[in-house]
Design brief:
Layout: E1 4-8, H1 14-23, E2 30-34, E3 54-61, H2 72-87, E4 93-95, E5 99-102, E6 105-115, E7 122-130, H3 149-153, H4 159-180, H5 183-191, E8 199-204, E9 207-216, E10 222-226, E11 229-233, E12 237-240
Helix pairs in contact: 2-4, 2-5
């Protein structure tokens, strides 16, 4: 897969533009990058503040994967971005299922979509990274507040310099996924986890679960060792608590 970079000063959404190109028959490896987005979005349709000073990109993929394996592309994207940022000196960690944290603050996220019909199926992996935006322009959150690489570790990185390395690592991890299955990605994601072995709480469809993060299942579900045994979750919003909530 060769990198075919398409740069735009501003788009409504890199995902929307990448989808348009994919539906028009573009080859795998097209990467849409925008200097800013008017309607950036993240997981579960949430908005993603996309002002100048960040990296906003979407990659067109046509991997030889079954439909049940396509969600694993999100893990490949997270690992690829984390490894590239770590190479530049940013000690980012991954929060299941698709966030990048630095000093406990959210500096990036991954969005994966699978679209098209059997004859022209494709997937999109979107990446958003806060590089150097003004902190006051980012959304205020009580848990995992948004921040930037510049604010958290003094790194001033340019979007254009990050894209080739992210693409190269994404290509490599997808190759492992196609050739060896999810296990190599599962192991690497666990190594890079922000909360491995720590006390966490997860909210899923109105219910709250508390326990210790216990890695990922062979299908990418988050495993949490709760008071009533280890459970696996395929959806939910995860946060960390400082100590055991159970009586000792």
């Amino acid at each position: 897969m060769e990198l075919d970079l398409r740069w735009f000063p501003k788009l409504e959404s890199t995902h929307d533009k990448a989808r348009e190109l994919a539906q028009g028959g573009c080859a795998e490896g097209v990467v849409v990058v925008a200097g800013e987005q008017a309607q950036g979005r993240g997981r579960r349709g949430r908005s993603w503040v996309s002002e100048p000073g960040g990296l906003y990109m979407s990659v067109v993929l046509r991997p030889k994967l079954g439909m049940s394996e396509v969600p694993f592309l999100s893990f490949a994207g997270g690992i690829a971005v984390a490894e590239r940022l770590m190479e530049s000196g940013a000690p980012v960690r991954l929060k299941w299922p698709n966030d990048l944290l630095l000093n406990g603050k959210k500096v990036g996220g991954i969005l994966c979509e699978s679209l098209g019909n059997r004859e022209q199926a494709f997937a999109l992996v979107g990446v958003g990274i806060n590089l150097s935006q003004a902190p006051e322009r980012l959304p205020s959150r009580p848990i995992f507040p948004a921040s930037t690489l510049l604010e958290e570790c003094g790194l001033l990185l340019e979007a254009r310099e990050l894209v080739p390395g992210i693409f190269e690592r994404l290509t490599r991890w997808i190759g492992l996924l196609v050739g060896k299955g999810f296990e190599p990605l599962r192991r690497r994601f666990v190594e890079l986890s922000a909360h491995g072995g720590l006390w966490v709480e997860l909210h899923d469809r109105g219910e709250r679960f508390v326990g210790q993060e216990a890695g990922l299942s062979e299908r990418g579900a988050l495993r949490i060792a709760t008071e009533h045994g280890t459970r696996s979750f395929v959806t939910g919003d995860l946060s960390r608590i400082s100590e055991s909530p159970w009586p000792t």
